[in-house]
Design goal:
The chain is of the alpha+beta class. The protein is built from 2 helices and 13 strands. The chain is about 15% helix and about 30% strand.
């Protein structure tokens, strides 16, 4: 628990120093959802042995929730790893209260209609996330610095994949 708190404070402090985002650790808000777009579940270690197969690469994914009361066009939003590049959304309307799952490998994008989960595909030819600890950043199109972070894995206090990244910081 101590590691998580100090890490969250360190990330929030770094964000404030770099961009003045005013990020606040989830502990300061009671860890509850706020009305925002944020990360959810995160499968940073695909099941089984890592291979370059489509199934293995698509076993890595991260969910993005729209917890607002309005649809959000994700065009230009970016999901970035610590060291392995970034995915930039094309035009994708994420309806109010819905979730889209970003998979690492190739596939055909689908919307999040009704109760269905939407899916988008990075199209990467290799795995993007570390199997032991993962760190993801979510950027709005106009932001120079990250809007939301997701930290999961044993170092961050969640030993299993998928991890849970629901509203770790508040922008």
């Amino acid at each position: 628990m101590r590691i998580i708190r100090s890490s969250a404070v360190a990330v929030a402090t770094a964000a404030a120093l770099l961009g003045g985002l005013g990020a606040t650790p989830a502990s300061a808000t009671g860890g509850q959802h706020v009305h925002s777009v944020h990360f959810g579940a995160f499968s940073f270690n695909s099941p089984g042995k890592d291979s370059r197969s489509v199934k293995s690469r698509n076993g890595e994914w991260i969910d993005i929730h729209n917890y607002t009361k309005h649809a959000v066009n994700l065009k230009g939003w970016r999901v970035s790893t610590w060291t392995s590049g970034q995915y930039v959304f094309g035009r994708y309307i994420l309806r109010a209260g819905k979730t889209v799952r970003l998979h690492t490998g190739p596939g055909r994008n689908t919307g999040s209609n009704g109760t269905k989960l939407g899916h988008v595909y990075w199209g990467s030819s290799h795995h993007r996330w570390n199997n032991h600890n993962a760190l993801a950043f979510l950027y709005r199109p106009d932001d120079r610095f990250f809007e939301k972070t997701c930290r999961t894995g044993p170092y961050w206090g969640q030993p299993k994949s998928p991890g849970d990244c629901h509203e770790r910081t508040v922008a």
